[in-house]
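User: I'll paste a sequence; please echo it back and then give the predicted structure.

Assistant: Echoing your sequence first, then the prediction.
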Amino acid sequence: VQLQASGGGLVQAGGSLRLSCAASGGAFSLHVMGWFRQAPGKDREFVSYITWSGVSAYADSVKGRFTASRDNAKNTVYLQMNSLKPEDTAVYYCAATVNGRYLLAAREYDYWGQGTQVTVSS
């Protein structure tokens, strides 16, 4: 499975961005898709995941502001990010797993996209 993330950019605090992650080369609908982010000098952290049926979960830091969705027909998952804060600045990665169990952990994911930079200015 190959993953291609896009949609990052520079936005002012309070603004919005929508990230996309296009998948190819596998049975996309069977995968749980995750979003993680990594800020400079920090560990990669969980942001969100969404299952094949659309069940989603979020980190407390983004709950109520970010929304994950997926279009299985287009093999694409999205992360709508609203009310962005400077602390949301990071490289955002999409990831996929079929058999992962603890879906908040990066180690459970088998495939990773290349990352897209999100910068939120104050």
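DSSP finds no helices and eleven strands in the chain. The longest strand covers residues 17-24.
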